Amino acid sequence: MYQTTIKKSVELVGIGLHKGSPVRLRLEPLESNSGIVFYRSDVDVSIPLIPENVVDTKMATVIGKGDHVISTIEHLLSAVYAYGIDNLRVIVDADEVPVMDGSSASFCMLLDEAGIQELDIPKKVMMIKKEVQIKEGEKYVKLSPSPDLNYDFTIKFPHPVIQKQAYVLKFTKESYKNEISRARTFGFLHEVQYLRSKGLALGGSLENAIVLDDKKILNPEGLRFSDEFVRHKILDAIGDMSLIGMNFIGNYEALAGSHDLNHKLTLELLKNADNYEVVELVGEKTRELEKAYA
Question: For the ranges 23-27, 142-146, 162-166, 283-287, which has the lowest average pLDDT?
Fold first, then answer.
């Protein structure tokens, strides 16, 4: 199994969640061993996708270099990671990735349009060898060894529509597209009002997020899944874990996980080489993974 990129450049324009301004996003192919590289065309700054470049995880995963940042990268990265793409240039002309409809479905469609190109060097994956956990109070995220890739997520919210939800994704590209990619981000009306008072979430609307007041969902169309909230948390986690730098094989488990906990988990994992083994996918090792990314 070989490293991949996209067959052709593709682009779209969408609204930035925080500024509310149009953002042009362009994806371009890169050669083997390039990784995922973000580029701010408006200020001529490249930011490689590595954990050290994460500068904020409060409301979204944000990478930066010097005074320049790119925010809300996790939904796009979730799709890129699910498609098994190793090398890609992501160009934006502003400080955030467009939010689209609040899910990763638009990015999946963009990648389908671009097509997947096999390159000439074997793909590398990270096999999780030891359990690694980050715990804060009752909240935790952890990785543990497994022959497959699974995401097991539980959330608890004191809200009548959400309450406790749990979901297990047995990962394949198809299961991701069918079960996860359409799940939208969500927020509470009082939070949106507060953020707007601070000049944030200016692009947020019922078109790109599920919004809840104290008792109900405000979106007239309702939910796409009865458990859309926890499915979106898995979408976020897949994007956040792409900071590892390659696809991994193991079990991801979370209770009330967050961008911040996921970032700390990637740092803890990479801190000790005994936690993982990087393998090139040659011969027999490739068959199961080839099925997953078919």
Answer: 283-287
Instruction: Name, in order, each residue with C-beta under 8 angstroms of 236's C-beta and a sequence gap of 6 or more.
Output: 74, 75, 78, 185, 259, 262
What one-letter code names the amino acid at 260? D
For residue 216, give both structure tokens: 């109900």
- The per-residue pLDDT for range 173-209, each reduced to its tens digit, is 999 999 999 999 999 988 888 878 877 778 888 999 9
Whether residue 259 lies in the annotated active site: yes
DSSP states of 51-86: GGGEEE-SSS-EEEETTEEEB--HHHHHHHHHTT--
| Active-site option among 18, 232, 259, 263 | 259
Nearest-angstrom CA–CA distance, 5 and 19: 30
Cα four-point dihedral sign 160, 240, 131, 281: positive
Q: What is the pTM of this model?
A: 0.95
21 neighbors 94 (Cβ within 8 angstroms): yes
| CA distances (Å), origin 25, targets 93, 116, 205, 206, 208 | 7, 18, 20, 22, 17
Under 8 Å between Cβ of 238 and 248: no
Phi first, then psi, for residue 273 (nearest 5°) are -65, -15
CA 140/CA 243 separation, integer angstroms? 18
If you average pLDDT over residues 262-282, what whole number do you get?
95
